[in-house]
Amino acid sequence: MSTVKKDSKIILVGSGVFGLSTALHLASNEYTNITVFDRLDSETQRFTLLKGADTASADINKVFRAQYAEKKHYQDLAFQALEIWQKWNRDIHLLPEEESKKFTSLQLLDMCGTLKIDYIFGWEEKASKENYIKEGLEALRYDLDDPAELKRAKAAGYGPKLEVALQLKNSRIPQLVGASDSSSGILYASRCLQYASCLCRSMGVKFILGGCKGTFKEYICDSDIKGIITEHGKKHFSDLAVINSGPWSTKLVPELSGINEAAADNVLICKIPDSRRDLKVKYSSKNFPMLAWKSGHSREHERLGGLFLFPCMEPEGYMKIVIRQTKYTNPEVLEDGRFPSLKRQIALRLSTT
Ligand SMILES: Cc1cc2nc3c(=O)[nH]c(=O)nc-3n(C[C@H](O)[C@H](O)[C@H](O)COP(=O)(O)OP(=O)(O)OC[C@H]3O[C@@H](n4cnc5c(N)ncnc54)[C@H](O)[C@@H]3O)c2cc1C
């Protein structure tokens, strides 16, 4: 690979969170010749699942968290990212209204907190707690079975968000344990990508999106990779080509087999009708937390484990439930005989009932 200079031609394949984030960081570091390719016309689809963007990143919302059990480096990265998300939340509100409407005029990160409940604390929860204590961050979490912590949580405004757990404990599950993590929340993923692509464009990043012109087919190679050829046969020479194609990456870079494998979870999105204002208020992130039942790898294989209920997304009224219990893979045989799990096109099933 030739040495990359500030004006080197850089191609990024994929406009998901990794592609856009790579573009943004390169552009912020004064690399001036960046082009992002994608098989989807992601900007027209507004990075939105319900408009046909079948990518991992184009989701209505995602969990943002800093508690990663023993993985302290993830915790540190999350707190670094938090500063950027908070800056973006502020920057959006400083934009002229017409400009902000192009992608979103709403916040990107909502620090609504996560309420983790279970019959027992898994080792991950204990390790996360220890890490927070070591770092002096213990004030950011509240244990449900400690009256002093409960008092502190209520004083910090988390009272309504603990109701669901306290009701369960006082009625059906007396042995229930739980913790409220105020250092977590939800990211409105599609809106985040819309904003990130807007920032990329403002820094001169070019996009070739959608159909054959945006779809990577093969590399231009001699002794080294010299660029890419897209589905419609056009050659794009570059000094550096970076594959950010998420679960498709293993097809484009077969060496990733065994490292990068596609796996699908069960996701259910329902819409609260506009007429049910009461439900929208009840499940609003102002009153309802991100709810995690039996979370953490050691707990999610239990019955109904790994269940996440997201608060209502406003103004649309979407609520999302993810169950991380069963993972689905899609092994495909590659030319070299390897059979990694690759991304499969999804068929969206929309119901109006
Ligand atoms: C159901 C689900 C829930 C998740 N929840 C969370 C969560 O709550 N919190 C969290 O932090 N993470 C979560 N993740 C993980 C996170 O979403 C992914 O790690 C992340 O979005 C991956 O981003 P990416 O850019 O690598 O891939 P993608 O978003 O899949 O982007 C890859 C892009 O490459 C493009 N592409 C593919 N092939 C080609 C080609 N041949 N030519 C051109 N373009 C191509 C695709 O069209 C796509 O736009 C979740 C993942 C899933 C699936």
Automatic annotation (TrEMBL):
Required cofactor names: FAD
Superkingdom of the source species: Eukaryota
Keyword Oxidoreductase listed: yes
GO molecular function per UniProt: flavin adenine dinucleotide binding; sarcosine oxidase activity
UniProt source species: Pichia membranifaciens
Flavoprotein is among the record's keywords: yes
Annotated PANTHER family: FAD DEPENDENT OXIDOREDUCTASE DOMAIN-CONTAINING PROTEIN, PEROXISOMAL SARCOSINE OXIDASE
One Pfam family it belongs to: DAO
Name listed for the protein in its UniProt record: FAD dependent oxidoreductase domain-containing protein
FAD dependent oxidoreductase domain: residues covered: 10-256
Assigned keywords, A-Z: FAD, Flavoprotein, Oxidoreductase
Family assignment from sequence similarity: Belongs to the MSOX/MTOX family.
InterPro entries: FAD-dep_OxRdtase (IPR006076), FAD/NAD-bd_sf (IPR036188), MTOX (IPR045170)
